[in-house]
Amino acid sequence: MKTFTYNDMHFSVEKAQGRWDISCRTADGKSAYVAAGLFADLPESEIEARARALVCSMFPVGIKIVGPDVAHANLIGDLKIVGPDVTHPNFIYWDKDSSSSPKQL
Predict the structure, then answer these.
(1) Is the pLDDT of residue 103 over 70?
(2) pLDDT of 59
(3) Which helix (H) or strand (E) segment is 19 a member of?
(4) Is 85 contained in some domain?
(5) For the whole model, what pTM was predicted?
(6) Which strands sit side by side in the sheet containing 2-6, from one edge to the other?
(7) CA–CA separation, 53 vs 35, rounded Å?
(8) Could you tell me if 4 and 24 are in contact, meaning their C-beta atoms sit under 8 angstroms apart?
């Protein structure tokens, strides 16, 4: 049996009938099978790397925002992520006044 941790979940890879099963255990103690009957006829030295790659693709970590779209926010559970409003950028210039509104004299 091979074990590894990814994203606070503990995964184990066990051999069963010439194939490999991947199971996980979360931080709260729950366990589940991720995949079963994988990697037939592969050498044992490649199993952990293949299992880790499969787990990383099945359980992605992070948030990917494609393009700034202020009209349609991304919802992840109760979290609302709004991209930057690039139609009204507030650029910072290092060689002149960087405020977005010009100074009135």
Answers:
(1) no
(2) 80
(3) strand 19-25
(4) no
(5) 0.55
(6) 2-6, 9-16, 19-25, 31-38
(7) 13
(8) no
